[in-house]
Amino acid sequence: xxxxxxxxxxxxxxxxxxxxxxxxxxxxxxxxxxxxxxxxxxxxxxxxxxxxxxxxxxxxxxxxxxxxxxxxxxxxxxxxxxxxxxxxxxxxxxxxxxxxxxxxx
Length: 105
Fold this sequence. Notes:
By secondary structure, the chain is of the alpha/beta class. The chain is built from 4 helices and 3 strands. It has one domain (17-104): Vaccinia Virus protein VP39 (Rossmann fold, 3-Layer(aba) Sandwich). α4 links the parallel β2 (77-81) and β3 (101-104).
């Protein structure tokens, strides 16, 4: 039996020839109305409230982590995880001093 799992291009962003392209890909998706509505609906279904603690696995550039952090507010916390050090670096840079979010590898 083959125990290998299928891989996508996002499996190893840090080893890609042009890792910045993956950041640009995620950024461009956040400008598509369907994607924005879908993510808004997901957050509504998750029923996120101020003060909650949320873990986001596969946080990428941290855009969703930041959106959720706005909802949980200063009394909550959002931790975003990603395998890619480049994605973590971008997410941390974009998060700035947001006290409600934390991005880790």
